[in-house]
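For the sake of transparency, this paper describes our internal protein records without simplification. Because each token names a local backbone shape, the row as a whole describes the fold. One such record is reproduced below, unchanged from the form in which we store it.
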Amino acid sequence: MQRPSKPENEARRLEALHRHEILDTPAEAAFDDLVSIAAAICGMPMGAVTLIDAERQWFKTRLGLEDPQTPRDHSFCAHAILEPQHMLIVPDARDDARFRDNPAVTGAPGVRFYAGAPLLDAEGLAMGALCVMDREPRELAPYQRGALDALSRQVSALLQLRRVSLELRLHLQERDWYEH
């Protein structure tokens, strides 16, 4: 298994991720819906919104996956964030040196196919990926790639709206505190 390297902008990327205050938060229907749509369009039994922290991959939402997080070193999505402008597609993980002996491939959940579209903040920093997976080797049709890219932009926009809403609430609380 090839451990993913860390992006050159890792410190800035982690700062951006933590500013969103999304890690370890409860499930949210909007994220669940986007993963369900991505999996349905791509015909996949598994999907997730993953966020890549310093040492782990945490699932904001997951479909067909048991664990709420995995070590970053085992993460397909940690590879996907290395090229934030491109979707990572692994047609057969058993044929890819980066993943063939990955615990997610050799054991449960038995990943063979992976496609992950990076989730970008307003500065273009990759925080994680919207991904779909299968237990069989696969390819994505052009329309499926386009849909996964479009849905990843919607997840990114939802993350950004969530962050702006949080900042606005904090600002209003400070204003109320100063006025009283």
